[in-house]
Predict the structure.
Amino acid sequence: MTDVLRIALTHFTTAIRERVTLFWFLVFPVFLLVLLALIFGNIGDEGEIHFEIGLINRDAPGGAVDFAAIVEETFERLAELGEDDTEPLFTLHRPDAEDDLDTFVEDELSALRRGRRAAVLVIPSGFGATVLDAIVSGDAPSSELSVYMTDSNVASQMASEIVAQILAEVDREILVRGGRYDPAIAIASEEIWLGGTGDETPYIDFVLPGIILMGFFVNGLFGVPGAILFNRDRKVLRRYWVTPLSVPRYLAGFSIGHLALCALQFALLYVLGRYALGAGVSFATLPAALLLVLSAATFLAFGFLIASLARTANAGMAVANILNMPMMFLSGLFFPIAGLPLVLRLIVYANPVSYLAQGLRSTLGVEASVFSLPLIVGVPLGWIVLSTVIASTRLKWDVER
Amino acid sequence: MTDDVLLRVFDLVKHYGDVHAVDGISFDVPAASVFTLLGPNGAGKTTTLEILEGIREPDSGEIGIFGVRVHRITRPIKQRIGVLLQDGGFEPYLKVREILHLFASFFEHPLHVNDVLQRVALADKAGAFVRTLSGGQLQRLALGAALINDPELVFLDEPTTGLDPQARRNMWSIVTDLRERGKTIILTTHYMEEAEALSDSVCIMDHGTIIAEGTPRELTHAFGEETMVEFRIRELAEQGLAELADCGKEYRVDGGAVTVETEDLPATMESLFAWSRRQDVPLDSLIVRQPNLEDVFLSLTGRRLRE
Amino acid sequence: MAILFTFLFPLVFILVFGFLMGDIGDVSRATMGLFASSDLDREALDAAIAAAGTMQIVSFSDRTEIEEAVTAREVDFALIWDGARIDFLYDAARVQENAAYAQVASGIVTDFNLRRQGAEPPIRIDRIDVGETSSASWFSLVLPGILAFSVLSAGLNAVSGHLTAMKERNVLDRLVVTPMRPVLLLIAIALLRLAIVFISTLITLFVGILLFGLRYDVDWLRYTVCVLCGAFGMMGFGTIIALLVRRPSSASNIAHAGSMLMLFLAGVYFPIEFMPAFLRGLSEAMPLTHMANALRYAMGVIDMSEVEFWAINASLVGLALLLFPVLARYVVRPLRR
């Protein structure tokens, strides 16, 4: 085997065998992919989200229609196990027959404040009469159903939104039965998804390219300087330079090995995303493949840049750690980047990851890109050139003798 | 260049500012021999070797090697030499066999990896990870990497420093074996015994220059027909020690060790016994020996080879 | 280097996340585009929109214009009314936010339909916020989580990192042969690290308050208790890791990896309620989850029973005290090869 290929194989093999590297560039992206898909992919889905709700009915039963009971029953249904034993939307906490209602409400509110409940519903006494009144007269009801929540808590916000929606449905039912509302003449609404496939983009299709890119990014940012600097400091490279092996050939082999590692990351994440998590995006197009290669190459060059800026391996890892977060998160990979202050937006514009992420997603048909094609290709290429120039002048291939 | 000289160095110079690491040295290395650069740390041996290995550039001077004269070692030349560095690492997560395959790929005509493993006695460790090797095994692996291209000329920079006596002897027998096979070896060391045991010719270096050269025998015989008498004593006053001057040609004291040079052994022995009775000081661990390279270096520089 | 990290890392964290996370899930600051080509039922529509919340409404006079505004993200989503149907336009790529907008949308439709037929919803809801802080955003809950994380990693790293590195480089062995007892040595190291992490949390906190206008009601006693107990407790965990691994250098890697995993699972970034059931259980079992909650309580963001607060901190300290003598023996023990 030629020297270049042997070096590529060496780089690949050592990365796989080193447990630390293996964790950060394989295990961690996989973990993140699965976690994000499980969490964000399921917001709004049946059986995946769950809230603890307190429900107190202070209304005395009686009257022609027990509206309070209707409300309670609606929530009870939503607290039952779904088909296939999927977890219900709510777990209800209701007072027993002998509980003092005032105390129970206080306890529930206490629990709400401590984050043990997402919301607490209190149906006031006289509720049924009020509702009946409202239906008959067509005016606004004179009493309200209290929904206690915590505004600073996203889960509580969401729970209260869902409760509001459910009650709106109950409203409609009551009005329909009371003859005040005719669903047949209701206005229909449509959801239209702009950009992408024209349909709602599944979350997994949105996040899979991002995680793949993140995997390449971590590999380049940490793996490349790590390998080079540790080998230089341990004088492994010195043994190579007394042989006919030249630095360019070493770099060629190293780069091929790096690309092979990226290919492994891609394969693993893609198979997982496609067959276990149901992703539909296809990377089998030329533009997508080219963007993947461009991304891997950009981060490889970036890794060399970092290696050339640090004097020791530990310094290199420190630099990589500091750059890691801003570059990864200020890029639109995971979070929307609208509405950032100027300083941070400048980082976004300078960051090659921003362009690669947009480019990849738009090539895959997931979203329309806000950056033009020349920028998508040009900015990463610019970074490759800059990194290569700086690294080739600054990178020392042997420690001081 | 004559046929039996494989390497010739012409006036090699390497300065680092005020430090004259290599200050204009020249020597010849005959083919199929072991040539040793002997000297204390900082003498310039490793710098010289690194220039000859092609990883350091000389300020001036030329190198005649494999029939051509060059200013620096080129890649084609590197195909034909083998280098054992003074210190260097290997990828810890590779196996012994994989390391040798890697180095083999750098050369146009490498040997079979299994043959090299046999030659450096690492065949049973072929599948072991580098991290699990002992110091001696690592050094043999490095030697294997240096020999993978079946080089005509082999550089060994301090090959046994830090090794235990058994490992050292193993290395010596590998070196002698290489010479039997017709290889030319350039060795640096600060161990006198090593230089004496292995070398066909020795250059003694100090402060960047060559202060003596020749075979080990030639160098020690420059002393003439002298014999050295060594013994150990406990504390003794200056005046008592000064009387040793009358016992032989010269004497020196180093801590508790006394060395007396003499051209007339019987007379010296008599005066020493008399001196011992007079001073009431026993002569512990008394030995009589031939002069060695350490004595040569000491007489030339007034310092020891090893601090 | 490590010190630089302790200070720099959480700062960068909150700088990046403060701006990014500020608006997730916060529909009240959303912008909706509106294009009504018909004046039919306008009152009902406007009333329904007004009732939906404090969104900003931007009007358009052209379908193409409004579509472009959505894809260019000038508006978050849009409503088009042509007299017969309501269309809602979404940017397909805004996967994480669209769920919230869709909820608002369906609320508008329901409300609109009711009003259109002159039907008042007979059930009215009164949303009452019982939260502790008045201007709380999700980020004000996140920040204590980040502080808890920096306490956790400082504590972990003091042992599985700093101490293990010293062990590997045999620095510990040299220190141990001095007349100082190992326990005192440990206490000295621990106190130094404690001081550093405490100061770093304060810096991070103040930066957060300054930059993002967060408001906290910090009970300094409880805050200090949280930081100290958390750091100590985590040194205990670090000891467990150091004892279990073969090579000291692996300890810091495992600690680092574990803390990153914990960061995602402990409800710092997203609420635990959003996780599938099996992950929720895992999350409850993690020390970071409870450390973060204790700190949130100390900073006045959530409520917690006193018993729970002190129980959390006591168990952290208890663990540390239990393991301290073990740690002392580890320091003295010869390096296993």
Summary: The mean pLDDT of chain B is 89. The CA atoms of residues 96 and 126 of chain B lie 5 Å apart. The first strand of chain B starts at residue 5 and ends at 16. The radius of gyration of chain B is 23 Å.
